[in-house]
Amino acid sequence: GDGVTHGYLSREDLTRERFAPNPFTGKGLIYRTGDVVRLRQDGRIEYVGRNDFQVKVRGYRIELGDVQHALARLREIRQCVVVVREREPGDAHLVAYYALRDGVRCEVQELRSRLREALPEYMVPGWFVELQQLPLTDNGKIHLKALPDPFRQHDAQRPSGITPLGQAEATLARLPGVAEVALVYPEPRAADARPVAFVVPRDGAVISAVDIRRALHGVGAEEIIPDTVVTANDLPRSGGAVARDRLAATVPGAADAPRSATEALLAHLWCTTLGVPAVGRRDNFFELGGDPLGAHEIVVRVQARSGRRLDARLLVAENLAQLAERLQAAGRDGGAA
């Protein structure tokens, strides 16, 4: 409208970024305020949040407004806000607080699945907290400081005496096809190690890592969700209880030595790029503290050393052993990994 300025003085780049032609009148400019709103069925405009709150989580720069907008678009959601919370210094997590519409029920697993259809994996919140009503300030905006601590809330909801790992095991034991299950950390245990799921299947059922992850999403923290599933005929016991130490001894530690020349090359490059003393076969580049710039550096150095091109996107989801296998296959086929 007439109240909108013509742009920023002597800043044509910023003017192009923040101003756009008015699509409603066909003339003049509109200003991109950064506010995210939703047009309601009654014609009223509902304020959702901002789209210019950029944060860095696990090496990725994320616009919180983009995540919040994707969540707000789900028909079950009445209110929501997405923030970053640290469980401990340097351990940042995306947390989604939300309130459902009256009479609507929606499991966290369903929300995650729907968000994955609209967002890349690294932008999907690791924690979801359902509230009856989000706290508001006097002027009607979401009161961020009044939001509950998601980590304390999770611990408070856990039955007395049950550890996060025990709660996860109880959840997995209820899966169809699971006769018995144990989550065990490898020994020696690295600080960022995830447990391994030892599963005794029932009636020949096949339980995959995907099944495990789906079952545990929303049950506990992301770090207790296993990356590896080991199928067993039975679990070793001592005095009637599962002998976890014997299971742990069968799993290589997070810093076990590379087994091939390609794995050794990748481990060396990761150590020098990330500044870590050792890298294990099941370690993930980003979980060790890597970021997109570091991933690009790895791609360049791998090509310079081996003549093979590695797709940087694979560093997000795959561990060192998986990447090494891809590079070896690319070498045999003469292509890119």
State the oligomer. single chain
Beta fraction of the residues? 15-25%
Residues in helix, %: 25-40%
**Strand line-up in the sheet with most strands:** 7-8-9
Order of helices and strands: HEEEEEEHEEHEHHEEHEEEHHHHH
Detail the poorly predicted runs. Answer: 155-162
Number of helices: 11
> How widely separated are the two ends?
52 Å
Large-scale geometry: globular
Average of pLDDT: 78
Number of strands: 14
Overall SS class: alpha+beta
Rg, please? 24 Å
What characterizes the major β-sheet?
3 strands, mixed
Descriptive terms for the model:
single chain, 337 residues, alpha+beta, 3-stranded mixed sheet, globular
Write structural notes for this entry:
- The protein has helices at about 10-20, 65-70, 110-120, 150-155, 165-175, 210-215, 245-250, 260-275, 290-305, 315, 320-335; strands at about 20, 30, 35-40, 45-50, 55, 60-65, 75-90, 90-100, 125-130, 180-185, 195-200, 230, 235-240, 240.
- Strand 5 and strand 6 (about 60-65) form a beta hairpin.
- The protein has eleven helices and 14 strands.
- The protein is of the alpha+beta class.
- Residues about 155-160 have low confidence and may be disordered.
- The longest helix has 15 residues, at about 290-305.
- The protein has a three-stranded mixed sheet. Strands 10-11-12 form a three-stranded mixed sheet.
